[in-house]
Amino acid sequence: MFVLPPPPKYPAGVNGNGPIIETHNTIEHPKGPEFQFTAGEGTYVLRDDLLLATPPPHPSETPAVNTNPLHTTIAAPSAGTKISLAVIAPRRSEQQRYRSETPTSTTSTSSSNDGQEKQSSRDSGADSFPRVTNGSGDGDHSHAPVFGRSNAALNVVNGKEPKDPSKRRKPKNNIVKSNSSFVSRVIPHEGLTKRLQEHSPDGMFAFANINRALQWLDLSSPTKVENLTKILFTKAHALCHDVNEITKSSTHIDLIMGFSTGDIIWYEPMSQKYARLNKNAAINATAVSEVKWMPNSENLFLASFHDGSLVVFDKEKEDAPFVLDETATPDVPTNGHSMSTIQIRKSVQSRTQKTNPVAYWKVSHQKINAFAFSPNGRHLAIASEEGSLRIMNLHKEQLLDQFNSYYGGLVCVCWSPDGRYILTGGQDDLVSIWSLADSALVARCQGHHSWVTSVAFDPWRCDDRNYRFGSVGEDCKLLLWDFSVGMLHRPRAASVRQRASIVSSLPGMRNRAESSVTMLRSTSNLSRRSLEEGDIVHAVEPRARTAILPPVMAKIIDEHPLCWLGFEEDCIITSCKEGHLRMWDRPKEGAGAEDAVPSTSGSNV
Amino acid sequence: MASFFGRLKGANNPAGTSAGSTPAKKDPNAPQPTPLEKLLIDAGPIRTDGSDKFFGFENFGSTCYCNSIVQCLYYSAPFREQVINFPVRSPHESLKRKSAAISSNEDTTTQLTSPVKSKNPFATSLTQSSSPRTKQVPATTTASTAGQPKQEENKESPEYKKKVALATGPVLAMNYENSNAYGMDGSLFSSLKDIFEAVIANESRIGVVSPTKLLEILKRDNEMFRTPMHQDAHEFLNLLLNQIVENVEQYSKENEASSAIKGASNSLVKALSPVIPSSILAPPTGSLVQNSRWVHELFEGTLTSETRCLTCENISQRDEAFLDLSVDLDHHSSVTSCLRRFSEEEMLCERNKFHCDKCGGLQEAEKRMKVKRLPRILALHLKRFKYTEDMQRLAKLFHRVVYPFYLRLFNTTDEAEDPDRLYELYAVVVHIGGGPYHGHYVSIIKTQDRGWLLFDDEMVEPVDKRFVLNFFGEGVNENGHPKNLACAYVLFYQETTFEAMERELASEGVSAMPEAQKDPIFNQPKANGVAVPNGVHQANFPTTPMSEEVEGFASLDRETTTPLPPPPTAPGPFHNPLEPIQTSPTIPFLKRKKSFAKKEQERHEKEERERRKAEEKEQERQIKELEKAAKIKKKEMDAIRKENQKRQEEELAARYKAAGKPSSNASSSQAGDDSSYTSIGTGTTGNRGSGLGMAGGLGIHEDTHMQTLNHAQTPPPQQTLQPPPTSHPNPNQNGFSSSSMGTTPNGVKDSGSMLHRFRNTSMSLRQKPKFWGKDRERKGKNSGDHSDLSREGFLNNSSHDSQSPSETTESSTNATTPSAGYGSPELSGMKNITGPSTTSVLPPITAPVPLAPTSTPVFDKVFSKGHGDKPVKKESRFGLGRKKSVNLL
């Protein structure tokens, strides 16, 4: 008989024992085959592995270590590290990218089809191509639609403000001196002003959340490991954030953050000023899942909430608890069915626009996980926990399409650079490609071994026919995909309709695409369309009828589930739940890789 | 409502008294309604289908594997329905039974105050059975006094809640058999049916089931479940389903035969007296025959294994049925990908070569398995217990495996019918613990209209839907320690439709809205804003969708648009959301929505706030009143209880002295266990070594330990008033029983080998030749006869922890040691039961095979050999054993 070893203790969570002290970010440059991956164009190599320091819990909030693994208290919603990037200088490359719209890639066959198709797609977004990024430098975006322009009530408020357009309005409160219980501590870098002066306009700023902290980083600086500023919030976690592309300058960046508590903070890092919106959950009491500036708007931004609401805020307006106004459509009890329309609790056309919210839409019964604006700023794609992808006409506040995942919730969504396709990733382990014009599922991309958490197009490797996109997931993998309009390999039982949606050049199909476009513009058609629910809500495509796309590259690139992916001109950036921010250098120029895939950059200037 | 108050008045008293029994700990708010009671407070009339019954299951020491699985099965509506309806009887018969069931339940409820009625043959053992449980009391009492003199009773601790649940009752002592009424022999099925019927027939919505009979039969028929060791819940599920199949088929076969005879005689009767309606005379035979395959219809799917011989390119297909799927796990994967991997192509080479019928020899081959027929209920077993060669035993995998609420299968064959079938997750069995040999099982189950509930033995608690996703597994930290010991182990998906899914998601969203606002998380940071008292009731609000709220969608939906979010103390389920006065301050507001006068608004807000406060006060007052009433009762009970306790303790002390056993042994096996809750406190650290010295004493397994702790601290009064419905034998039977158990010191079966043997059994059950059932039945009867003597012994041993410490020690450390237990006497009985699948063929080494067949080719070989005596299926067994152990064919 012998004495047994003591039973393993329940681990006291990740936090371990004893107080954890504030630590600094660390950076590593691991080398080796596991830190690179190869696609057709060459090998991507890990440049930096920046580990953001997880802040210790706030002293006032001693983490009640509940040793019962079954404790039923639900933790506050949290998110892995997401990143918002800001490059002050206008991006040349993106302009190139759009110019590449002119047929350059003669390598691919079936050019006539493509030409037609391009025309039809141009119909849909002709005047929208000069998009946000295009006008970011000179402020020339008058012909791009701006949300809420048509409402005089909104314009009045806006019109008062910009006396001196070069001088941006800053938020009211100083975040460093703030005695708000919301902000715990602000730690600016001691050489902040010097570092800002040294920062080149082409350099990349990044804002990254980790736990209850938000860090402002200079990714182009040699001392990128040291944050420019770190803000520690008391309890709330920043779940999402976004940089306003049109107001950014060397002296001004508008950052908007959404929190687990429902609060939203408008933060200007250069002056360390901030303002808090949806304070005390005045407008919506659930957590903010995604926040983004409205296309081409200086003041308006859209926030999605865990209760399925989308709310447009004006960063400069006070919150006011709002009552349903007269312009709102009456709430239609949907009797337990999924919402096939958007409940407009407050329309952007409402005349009472003195306070926030500017508009309030109830879109889903379940949490909205992500949304994305189309490049032309007209459409909004909304991915929700119930597994539906909704396409909404932003200006008409109308639901155009509702698709459904194969199963499970949709986690992330993005648009192709030309606005023709929408990507979603979700709990069915699939990346799905949807066509806006055809209102149909184009293909399902199979390759992840767990839920897909982020999808993004690589605009530097997209042209009018070939699309490169990437996805990351809970399986710690980065997958790269090449999708070209003609090359989809379809299952045997592919239906005619499906075929049509893939090669949308059949005459009938083109008509359909065009008609849908005209519908977007004429109100009469719109109302007709909204009546036909069957036209809006699309049934789940059976597997046997759907094209399957395999990845061109799949690689485990982190030990932790990944949660964010971004393509930049010189690198791919990924981040994981534990705060690893990894930058992967693109294949070196001149390695012959550029020729492998028709690339737009360089050949076309 | 009535039932709730009734319980508060009557039944809740024991709770109060038990809470107060710890000296100097008179808790004023002891009889607060539990979250579950709150959830059910406005429930309407009880439905007859049993879908709104929420009973916990008593744990008799490591029987959580059984509790968790039975709960999962109960809440599968079609399964429950079939169990209830299976032996179709004439209306007359079922009426009779119904009333009998009800009366028996009345008995059990009245047992709270009056001694048990001896209404069944086990009544005598029942009166006896109370003693072993009480016997445990001094053991743990001393332990607790030795460790921590006065353990603070944590109201939130599951132990406490379980104790209260047990004390509150009603406790359904499922120690009787109605099997004769069904015309069946006592079997797992009949006892399961007894439980289901008793739960449904009971007037209360909540309570505790003591599944004594079920465990008794389980242990009688299955040797591996006789030890009080930690059992595998999946193995139990497997066995249970197979036994049910067998019981049901046997019954219908018998009935067919007998009804054929009867039919003949009936025709005679009919001819003689055509006046009598035939329904009275003849049992409905036709439907019986049709019915007997319902388990298959629910759980069974078909796998097609395609094997392509690499030598002759011949493709052989073979269909195999499964009742559940066991999938291998990867780091950071999803259930979807595990299922995909399950169907990945697999090379059969080297030792695993495939016997090709065409070439006539062992050849290399490629094999893949796909689902050809999809089951209606998909039971997915995540193979978290894997054999590790370096440690020479099974270890638990803590891999993060995500599971979505909805699922479709990718790995279907082309010709599969409805390959895009949508499944919804309806139950999760969670294993909590560091390894396969110890731990605890609970289940989290979606109920028809009460959202998700956590079933932890006696305790039933409503949980948030998000809670279901807490058990992905979180891997291990840098030191190799698991970050979270609780991981999903068996997932139950049931078929559903897209429309049903939409409906449900919509209704969830509706009820989630106010819930989110109630959530403390959202309120705490707002301390500087609207006054948000962190009141008493805030934490306990049920978070599950309720049917009433679905109907009240419109009004609730508007609620969010109102100026003030309802404070967290806003009346939850206490109020019907449809009644504007109670729930929604918002409604008068909405009516006035055209008025935009600000002052008016503000005034309203103020009024609203005031009214809400008043409402809160009113609520609190009501609750206090209830408490007061309960307290008075409590005092009354206190006296009785104290007396009882004293008497009990004296009695037990005397017994212990007589038996010459140290009383502090409760902790002995605790040391070996990874108990599920550190908060157990008393015995965990202080007394670890103390039990090692005793000879043949009781090693109490973790679950029991918990239970005994509870009883030790506060023996609920009904323990003496109402002998608990266990079959714990008298302590003085102990010596006899442990010897009859036949587990010699080295006869400890490590769970692996047992699993393996069991696996064989269960597999052979489906493969059994026609004659076999009868054979088995005969033998079963025989063994039943001669085991009558020892049966109590088994039970004794297993159900109540009289395992010697040495056994426990060995079992948890030396688990894979080859044991001589196979030769033990009653194993031959086991062999009889299991039939010609010859457990004796198995060399002892096979221990871990069934759980981790992939890991070692050696084992594969053994495994396939185990089936080797069945040449028919040889090749398919082969494949199965190797990687994709479809558990049960």
UniProtKB/TrEMBL annotation, chain A:
Extent of Low complexity compositional bias: 102-112
Swiss-Prot/TrEMBL GO biological process terms: carbon catabolite repression of transcription
GO CC, alphabetical: cell division site; cell tip; nucleus
Location of region: Disordered: 89-178
Record-linked SMART domains: WD40
Biased composition annotated in UniProt, kind: Basic and acidic residues: 91-100, 115-125
Residues in WD repeats: 403-444
Keywords assigned: Repeat, WD repeat
Gene3D superfamilies (alphabetical): YVTN repeat-like/Quinoprotein amine dehydrogenase
UniProt similarity note: Belongs to the WD repeat creC family.
Protein name: WD40 repeat-like protein
Organism: Tothia fuscella
From TrEMBL, chain B:
Signal peptide stretch: none
Biased composition (Polar residues): 101-148, 662-671, 729-746
Reaction equations catalysed: Thiol-dependent hydrolysis of ester, thioester, amide, peptide and isopeptide bonds formed by the C-terminal Gly of ubiquitin (a 76-residue protein attached to proteins as an intracellular targeting signal)
Assigned GO CC terms: cytosol; nucleus
Gly residues bias spans: 683-699
Function in brief: Ubiquitin thioesterase component of the regulatory network controlling carbon source utilization through ubiquitination and deubiquitination involving creA, creB, creC, creD and acrB. Deubiquitinates the creA catabolic repressor and the quinate permease qutD. Also plays a role in response to carbon starvation and the control of extracellular proteases activity.
Biased composition (Pro residues): 714-728
Keywords: Hydrolase, Protease, Thiol protease, Ubl conjugation pathway
Single biological process term from Gene Ontology: protein deubiquitination
PROSITE patterns: USP_1, USP_2, USP_3
Designated name of the protein: Ubiquitin carboxyl-terminal hydrolase
EC number of the protein: 3.4.19.12
Domain USP residues, every copy: 55-496
Biased composition (Basic and acidic residues): 150-161, 597-654, 772-791, 862-877
Coiled-coil ranges from the UniProt annotation: none
Molecular-function GO term, any one: cysteine-type deubiquitinase activity
Family recorded in the similarity comment: Belongs to the peptidase C19 family.
SUPFAM superfamilies membership: Cysteine proteinases
Bias-annotated ranges (Basic residues): 880-889
Region named Disordered: 1-36, 94-161, 557-848, 862-889
Domain of life: Eukaryota
Pfam families in the cross-refs: UCH
Assembly and interaction partners: Interacts with creA, creC and qutD.
